[in-house]
User: Which sequence fits this backbone?
């Protein structure tokens, strides 16, 4: 039989690496507010804006959670790579 955690257990477990939800939300909101008021925000593709939102999410987790949790950094590299690939496709005219 498979063990399924209840939601409170899941939140407690995730909190050990992601940090306090409210503190993280403040950090992420502040970073995103700064990004969204720049001239390039509306010029970017939906993929670019999404990647920046997700990178902001990871930065918030790094700043209030376990900054040594390698998956946060790996995810940032992944979103940056997705955008690099999109830019290369855009440059090719595809």
Assistant:
């Amino acid at each position: 039989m498979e063990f399924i955690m209840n939601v409170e257990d899941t939140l407690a477990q995730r909190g050990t690496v992601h940090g306090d939800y409210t503190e993280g939300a403040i950090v992420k909101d502040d970073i995103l507010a700064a990004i969204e008021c720049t001239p390039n925000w509306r010029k970017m593709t939906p993929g670019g804006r999404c990647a920046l939102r997700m990178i902001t999410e990871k930065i918030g987790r790094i700043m209030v959670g376990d900054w040594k949790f390698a998956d946060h950094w790996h995810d940032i590299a992944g979103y940056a790579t997705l955008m690099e690939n999109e830019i290369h496709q855009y440059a090719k005219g595809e």
